[in-house]
Amino acid sequence: MDRQLIYPGQILPDTTLLQMSKDAMLGLAKLSSALFGGNTLINGFATAPSNPASLQVVVAPGEIYSWQNLDNNAFGSLGADSAHSVMKQGLALDAVSLTLTAPTAYGQSVNYLIQIGFQEQDVNAAVLPYFNIANPQQPLSGQGNNNLPQYTARKDLALVQAKAGIAAASGSQSTPAPDAGFVGAYVVTLNYGQSQITAANIAPFAGAPLLPCGLLQAIQTEGLSFGLDSGSANAYAVNLSPALTARAEGQVLRFKAKNANTGPATLNDGLGAAQLVGGAHAALQGGEIIANGDCWAQWNSSIGSTGGYILLFCTGGAEQVAPATQSQQAMQLGQFTSEPLSFRNLLVNGAMRVAQQYGNASQTPASGTFVLDQWQFGATQAGKINFQQVAGPTSMGFDAYAQFTVASAVTLVASDNINLTQDIESQNLTALAWGTSNAKPVSLQFVVNASVAGLYSVCLRNPMGTRSYPVAFNIPVAGADTLIQIPNIPGDTTGSWILTGTGGGLQVIFGLGQGSATVATPGAWSNGNIVGASGTTQIAQMAGATFKVTGVQLEVGPFCTAFERPTPEAELARCQRYLPCLAASNATSTLPSVLYTLTNTVNMACIFKVQTRIPVTGAVISSPSHFTFTQSAAVSPAVAGFSFAGVDAALITFTGGGLNSSTGMSSYTYFNSVSGKIVFTGAQL
Fold first, then answer.
1. Which of 81, 289, 375, 543 has the fewest CB atoms lying closer than 10 Å?
2. E strand or H helix that includes residue 652
3. What is the pLDDT of residues 203-219, one digit of tens each?
4. Residues of the chain scoring pLDDT < 70
5. Could you tell me if 117 and 246 lie in one domain?
6. Which among 650, 560, 642, 590 has a CA at the least distance from the CA of 614?
7. Is 153 a member of any domain?
8. In 3-state terms, what secondary structure has residue 381?
9. 584 and 492: one domain?
10. What is the distance between the alpha carbons of residues 558 and 14, in angstroms, rounded to a whole number?
């Protein structure tokens, strides 16, 4: 803001005094434009019926802020300035009474617009005394002693007028538009025969640039962005005060809804109807807005082709969310009901707890060995990888890890493939609908720990080896337990899949060492026999390195849910569909009764606790010496062998000297060692 300098003894020119006044106006004008921008605003001018009531309304004092030329006419000795424009303030210091007329024709009504305009005029003319240099004791009358009056003030005024509309049948009358240089403030409606105006006849003019309250109060109440809905269901309309003149990215508009929505909706903010979508950027479905609910909407220019409002929320209404893709995200109702809450995990023994055949003994497994129940080790180079079931990450809720240790570094060739795989039974995959246009997505999660940080590989593959989906995942910190979640793996719509029957239908493959011919770009379905993702760590090449995995869950749907934890007996039963096992619980565990068929020959029928996937084809018996048969004297056989089996039972034959009871004699048997075990093979995938 400029200020004029004056010095002691200075002869003060009139231009200095005029410029002081102009500088004060400029300072106020710039402050006003900083607060209000460049659009016309009005403050005050509340319109009410007269008292006593009549056909008059009383318009309260107020002010108008309007963008105007600095000076259209000379300001005293200062010249006119129409090259610059500023925000000027026009004042109405006194209330104004306006007399209106009701229609004279029956059944008609008329709308009066109370409009406010800015007017600048020079006022208070008078004949002014001037200094007479020839005779200072006798002043001149008027400039040059011309005895003519001159204006003594330039006032910026707020003009208040009532503009009548055209009378028409009640309900069809329209409000006239403001005249040039004016803005609408209120509308007064009069009906035929009316002799008194009441408050019910007075309403704000739609789009009035009226400040609803003081600036500090507006900031505190956020009243400038709030309005009442005047539209209908699904077509909401909000008139802000002051009226919105342009939309801005991220601008929030709040309104109290008059009606609930029943489907897709629009929102008219005074600049025309715009699409109103939900928080997931999708059309509303109904119930997201309720009657009398407070709604928050935010402008986003990327909605649709021309922009639109996003309904952030409505109090009391349903909230739209995007489909969840992670375990801690909100689900849509359709996601919640589309899949069962139990038996979600398509994998068996995902927590790596069940190890019926080898327990937690350290192994150097041959390729094709089921190192844990349902988890098969595969290797194109033998004798270089050790395996052991070890303690798991209890802090993450697991008590067992499947651990691989590189005993001897592998030099990989293009066709090499060293992995841990589980085949999933086909009839458990029917819901996937893979190989069709309705193929559903799946989500995979697991916990890993590796002695070497880096990218690693997991892959989904059909058992024919013609379709694969490799994924690269990151272990950022060596030796740290890391939860990996891979949500929303798209279902394969074109590949060949077997989703019925008891054969293998889908393989989950963890890569330990994979040659260049067996990998492909991650994150997409590939043709051919692909088992891993390119560009990943091949830990089999690093002597002494370890890789551990547990908590593996594959489920239908676009997001990972909490790991499903069957009870130990339930998980064991699932495993025994593929690997029935009789194991000693103590040194005298009783086994089924036996029948002597020949001298020195005993048959024992083993009834399975769970029906097997297919009939077993063999048995692995810990040692004949682990069994004792009771007859005239307790004795153990020398040889034990598998005879035949179905899906419910198998027959084991024991032979050896000392088993010399009569043919057809029955007895019972028991384990004499905690190491005693019979594992029936052939039903695994």
1. 543
2. strand 649-655
3. 999 889 988 777 777 77
4. 327, 334-342, 587-599, 631-634, 657-668
5. no
6. 650
7. yes
8. coil
9. no
10. 81
